[in-house]
Amino acid sequence: MKPVLSLRGAALAFGGRELWRGLDLDVQPGEFLAVLGPNGTGKTSLLKSILGEQRLTAGSIEFMGEPVRHGSAQIGYIPQQKLGEGSSPLRARDLVALGVNGQRWGLPFASKAERARVDELLMAVGATSYAKAPLATLSGGEQQRVRVGQAIAADPALLLCDEPLLSLDLAHQRGVSELIDAQRRRSNAAVVFVTHDVNPILGMVDRVLYLAKGAFRIGTPDNVLTSEVLSDLYGTPVDVFRSRGRIVVVGSDDHLHHEDAA
Amino acid sequence: MSPTSGPWWSHIFDFSDYGDLLALVHNSILAGAILGVVGGLIGVFVMKRDLAFAVHGISELSFAGASAALLFGANVVAGSVAGSLIAALLIGLLGARARDRNSIIAVLMPFGLGLGILFLALYTGRSANKFGLLTGQIVAVDDPQLLALLVISVVVIAGLLLMWRPLTFASVDPDVARARGLPVTAISIIFMVLLGLAVAISIQVVGALLVLSLLVTPAAAAMRVTSSALLTPLLSVGFAVVSVVGGIMLALGGGLPISPYVTTVSFLIYVVCHIAGRRRVPARLPALTKELAT
Prior knowledge:
- The structure holds two protein chains of two kinds.
- By secondary structure, chain A is of the alpha/beta class.
- Chain A has helices at 43-50, 92-101, 112-124, 140-151, 170-187, 221-224, 227-234, 254-257, and strands at 5-14, 17-27, 32-36, 58-63, 66-67, 75-78, 158-162, 190-194, 207-212, 215-219, 238-243, 246-251.
- Chain A has eight helices and twelve strands.
- In chain A, strand 4 and strand 5 form a beta hairpin.
- In chain B, helix 3 packs across helix 13.
- Chain B is built from 16 helices and no strands.
- Chain B has helices at 9-12, 18-24, 26-48, 52-71, 76-94, 98-122, 127-135, 143-162, 164-172, 174-179, 184-206, 212-215, 217-225, 231-251, 259-278, 285-293.
- The radius of gyration of chain B is 20 Å and the shape is globular.
- The chains are: A alpha/beta, B mainly alpha.
């Protein structure tokens, strides 16, 4: 099976500070990869590299067998939730519609099939009841559901998620991550999911890429999220507790203080 | 046409010989209507991209270009287009981020206005021409100029319609648009060029100081009363056309510049929409109530 995403010897440094180096990674179709680690370890920069917005210091990234360019219609991108941006009242429906035909040049008339597709997507993410509400009036969880609807509109080969659950309550964290997982199963899309908290997606994750202190570990959650592996990675004693299906990482390191979970 | 007799209000509204006057200016009314379409359409994106201040900045440099053309005996529309494009491209290239953009505009604007005032001070021709650049006078527009305005308007309208969806995507959701492979930077440069053209032709009608009333107020008014992606541009165009054409027709008798009429109509439309828009708030409540219930 050809990998969707393939990194070879990838390295990224900012002003002499190395974020990661020698990163070899293949993400297969239908695979769910969680990218974990404290702030400032280059999780979001990795996504930007995949999107061609950030040049690697060394190595290569291929998407669908081609070197990455500036974004791709085959990539669905789900950003962090941001409250009421801009001065224009964009409705939930319009945001999803941009996912369907936002790239098409030419007179802006939506076809019947496109409108039906928008309805179908809104239904799939449970956003039909607030489809016509301005985005800024929706809750964070509702906004992120709409974001998922937008991202899956073109049945992308890869879903890039940049902290999509940040600032959502637990119920919405579960709801939104289940929508992403459902799309992965339906269309065999690969998912690269950047998060500081693995717990909401623990049941879905196939592999984890854990970034810390200029190094990384790749493997299944059971193999990577252990006291031994993370202590080794951080170079300082770290305890990983498993309690009621949740994982809690505790360490003395400053980097870990604000991260109550992996 | 000169206000010499009668009470002061007769200078503001005078509808004697109205039919004859109308026949004289039907070209101007047509041009005004097309400018309304341009202003109403591009205003939607000026709002979406938060460029109201940029419009003002571009218009001052456009004014400098137009006054230079007046001084050197060149084509005023061409001068105004040149000034506009230089300003639009500078703002577009140097001010990709909002904070940079505002300071660049704040630097350009007084410079442009100063240059314009210098050129006008040196100009020894008809003083009505001078005043017209700042406050607008479409009646003074001659036939070749009118043709130039129409051609530019058609270019702007066609450009906006053809790039409507990608431009919307890049304006309201730039991160996702970029991830999907849209050339967001190129789109924004092209948009700035179209905006420069729109500002340059608007100056011929309402003048450099009042361009905002044509390129921002109608769209802002429309957005007070609807969030529909279809209704917003339609209402915005409607408001802009009513403002320009209404302004020209009201101004006919008085012999005063048309801009106060245009800006007042445009402002009143905004006030009505603002009041109407406040009543719309309860319509958003169901989404919130539902959120509280879950």
